[in-house]
Amino acid sequence: FFFWGGGGGGEKKPCKVDIMAHLEMEKLRRSGAGKSIAVLTSGGDAQGMNAAVRAVVRMGIYVGADVYFVYEGYQGLVDGAENLKLADWDSVSNIIQLGGTIIGSARCKSFCTREGRLAAALNLVQHGINNLCVIGGDGSLTGANIFRTEWNSLLAELVKEGKITEECSQKYTHLNIVGMVGSIDNDFCGTDMTIGTDSALHRIMEVIDAITTTAQSHQRTFVLEVMGRHCGYLALVSALASGADWLFIPEAPPQDGWEELMCKRLGESRSRGSRLNIVILAEGAIDTHGKLISSSYVKDLVIKNLGFDTRVTVLGHVQRGGTPSAFDRILSSKMGMEAILALLEATPETS
Fold it and tell me: Where is each Phosphofructokinase domain found (predicted)?
């Protein structure tokens, strides 16, 4: 667990910093013995989720805890049975480079109800689990927080219904939850980059670069719609990186009269000798009146005012696909390790 520093004459000596890091890691070994941790992925998938799952499982095993997969997100937590399985070291071999999530993800309506959360609590308690690692976006982590705040009342209800004993309720009186933000939108506070954002940007740039060549050949204008929901990060960064002519993002609605200004700008670009125009539009783009700006509206506007051959490309779920970038693999691995450490340090007072 530590590197060796080179000494004179080819002699190698362990660096003091590396030795200290090694000793700190050794202190963690078996520090989680007796604990059970469940990991699930929820909501829209994002490249790097598998790397995060891998890190949670292996770090959990390293500290001596039992780590369970929860298949199909919150739906698996509600359904229980075969959806909760004990993981081992080899369960996560050769997945760091895979996109998506090997344990599946689902948008679960039943978990939005108290009955669904009651079933989820029962399944966790039956497996001796009161530590949960959730990898997902805004909705997934909001649901996790609701689950945490209701935990004691859920156990009390299970006792009242005779599904668990009072002794069992006292044993698992506190639910520790750690969330990792898995979302290509980069729309969550607390982290500079969310899991999957960097990979999604790579996908977008590949498409823009490919479209640029055909647009230039045919002197076309392309309107590219990218994901992001209410966050314009993907659109903004891809526009900067590609040298796009115009950009629409939710955070900066264009002022009234933008249609004329945009067409003027695109026309000026052509008059200077450019053979193409690239317009990047975030899917949640709006004007100052809150009206959605659609890619088809922008296309029709350019055709009507400028007469340019204009096409729309909606990137869609291709942005979530493919293998994660090196950045996302490392980010997810670091987050997964820190998630386990956070669970080990959690107390009933931890918020």
Answer: 37-342
